[in-house]
Write a structure and sequence with these properties.
Blueprint: H1 2-26, E1 34-40, E2 45-53, E3 58-61, E4 69-71, E5 76-83, E6 86-93, E7 101-107, E8 111-115, E9 121-122, E10 133-135, E11 144-146, E12 151-159, E13 166-171, H2 178-185, H3 190-197, H4 206-216
Parallel strand pairs: 2-9
Antiparallel strand pairs: 1-2, 1-5, 2-3, 3-4, 5-6, 6-7, 7-8, 8-12, 10-11, 11-12, 12-13
Helix pairs in contact: 2-3
Length: about 230
C-alpha cells in the first residue's frame, strides 16, 4: 500500500514539475512572435511577425504593436520562420489516418521529409497523458514527451503529388516497425531496401536515408549502386 502511495506521489510531483516547465515555455520562446514570411495561395506574400497556432491559424502582425491578422491554413502555401539563427519552412499537411498539422520541411526531392516541431508554435493548452508519455494538447497531435522527459519527434514522408504525408517513424520512443515500413515505402529502390533490411540504415538515419533516396534512386528501374555509409 505504501509503495503504491509513494509511486502515485512521485508521479504527481513529476507531473506538476512538467506542467510548470510547459507553462514557462509557453510564456517564453514558444509563444513569442517570430520574424516570418507567409506565402499565400493568391501568389502574394506578407512579411512581419507571426506564429503558428495549434488550431491551424497563423497569427500575423506587420510590426510589433499592430493589430493582428489571422490567416487560415487553406489560404497559405507555406510559412518561412526565422528561428534559432536559421530560416525554416512550415507547411500545413494532411496526414494519413490523422488530422492535418503544421510541419517543418526537412528535405525536398522525389520524397519530401517533414517533422513536427514545437518551435514557432503558440501553445494554447497542455494535457498530461498517462502511461508511456505526456502529450501536448490543443490539436497539435504529434510531439509528446516520453517517460524520461525527452521530446518525441515524428517523421513523415510524401512522394511528390501524394494527397497526405505518411508517418514513417518516431525518434525518442518505440515506434512502428521501421524496417518493414521503410522497405515498403522505398521499394522502388532495391539497393536501398537491402541497406534497410541489413540495418545499415535504422530509424535514426531517416534524414540520411531520404537524402540518399533522392540523390541515388531517382528514375531507377533496376538496383542502383548505393555507396557504403557505415
Amino acid at each position: 500500500m505504501k509503495n503504491s502511495q509513494t509511486t502515485a506521489m512521485s508521479f504527481a510531483i513529476r507531473t506538476y514539475g512538467f506542467l510548470l516547465l510547459c507553462f514557462a515555455l509557453v510564456n517564453t520562446g514558444w509563444a513569442q512572435n517570430k520574424h516570418c514570411t507567409i506565402y499565400l495561395k493568391d501568389h502574394t506574400q506578407v512579411t512581419g511577425l507571426g506564429k503558428l497556432k495549434l488550431d491551424g491559424q497563423v497569427k500575423f502582425k506587420a510590426n510589433e504593436g499592430d493589430k493582428a491578422t489571422f490567416y487560415q491554413p487553406n489560404q497559405i502555401d507555406q510559412v518561412l520562420l526565422n528561428e534559432n539563427g536559421g530560416t525554416f519552412t512550415y507547411q500545413y499537411k494532411e496526414i494519413q489516418d490523422g488530422s492535418p498539422e503544421w510541419m517543418k520541411l526537412i528535405l525536398t526531392g522525389k520524397v519530401n521529409l517533414y517533422t513536427n516541431d514545437l518551435a514557432g508554435f503558440s501553445m494554447n493548452s497542455v494535457s498530461v497523458g498517462m502511461g508511456t508519455g505526456m502529450g501536448m494538447g490543443g490539436g497539435f497531435g504529434g510531439v509528446t514527451f516520453g517517460g524520461g522527459g525527452a521530446p518525441v519527434f515524428h517523421y513523415y514522408v510524401e512522394h511528390a503529388g501524394d494527397p497526405a504525408v505518411y508517418k514513417i517513424t518516431s525518434l525518442g520512443t518505440i515506434s512502428k516497425n521501421f524496417k518493414r515500413a521503410a522497405s515498403e515505402y522505398f521499394k522502388d529502390c532495391p539497393a536501398l531496401v537491402a541497406k534497410i533490411q541489413d540495418k545499415t540504415f535504422t530509424k535514426n538515419d531517416i534524414e540520411e536515408l531520404v537524402r540518399l533516396y533522392n540523390t541515388m534512386c531517382i528514375g531507377e528501374t533496376s538496383a542502383p549502386v548505393v555507396p557504403e555509409t557505415k
